[in-house]
Amino acid sequence: MMMKEVSSLSPEVIWPAKVSHVPKDIFVREDIYREELKRIFYGAEWTPVAHASEVPNVGDFKTCLVGEVPLLVTRDEESEINVMYNSCSHRGAQVETKAYGNKRRFECPYHRWNFDTRGKLIGCPLKPEDSEGFSRADYPLMKPRVAIVHGLIFVTFSEETRSIEDFLDGYEGKLANAMGGDGRLVLLGYHRLTLHANWKTYHDNDAWHAPLLHMAFRMLNWQGGKGSQFVNDTGHRGFESMLSLPKGKTMLNDNSLIEYKEANFERGSCSLHLFPLFAAVKHLDSIGLRFVNPVAVNKTELHFAYFGREDDDEEMRNHRIRQSSNLLGPCGLVSMEDAAVFQRLHIGGHAPGHQIFQKGMRGQYEIPTEFSQNDESANIPSWEYYRKIMGFEKEAR
To answer: Which of 3, 157, 189, 337 has its CB surrounded by the most CB atoms within 10 Å?
Structure first.
């Protein structure tokens, strides 16, 4: 792993010696946010931007952002996936503005340069005498590095980024589990949500809060089954757990909303959170990928994408649609309160002091390595990885 230079931010951030303490001001300082874009989102990390099933047909495309960098994801005439910078190779104008659609060519409106689904320049109004030595072959849309795992499309803007295998650190199987088993997905639909909070507030979300914050857990007497959390030293974490569903009558008029048809209760709920901001979540029969992007120091966009499996019949497909839209979206039964509490965390972050982690902490100065299912201490290794990337020095003990 490459060494990170020491932070040059002013005023300098001194990270607390106690590993359970995280400075509040890193969530609200504009200079830190700009440095995060440079070191993390434009640095040596892989960022998932789409799943191949979002562009299943020739000519399908999706646009997205990584930080402020615009990207265009396409499926070309050979059915291959392409990711290109959504910026004309002539004067840099944004080429495509729609969120998704189907096209065989993309036209920049400024000077009418046209590109195919591979990003090749196939037409422009230049004549041979207009520009000495000009060749269309020299002006394709530029492309970042790309890797695809179980259909999930990753990009990185750095040539120094480690291989995708090293980045995932043996979690390819857990990623597949969180996507329903093997990544053979069919897109069902989207929810999009703006969080009035810093991106790290979303990344820092823990497992402990769920039955305490979310009313539906209490109303449905929804108790978690046995499970485990897992983390590594490069910011990834997740959990796999047994489902334990409410028995008998609940406050729902129709309990089929929380029916579990796939019935692998040993691993009925699982998620994988990849540093810095992606999450794959399977809960009951709902399969969701969360593509999250920082917009400003106090604003984060969360794109929920919901999927079924390729071999689903119509009944299962409709069940997944109904469950996905009612459980885990912006107003889902088990996630409705998140956006509000994230905003309150951001407001509170302007007060001096630290966020202090408690549940599962068994020491103050050593990074924890063992966790129970709901310990918030599982977030600490990710914070240590973040600290090192940002070059923040620890204070002396």
So the answer is: 157
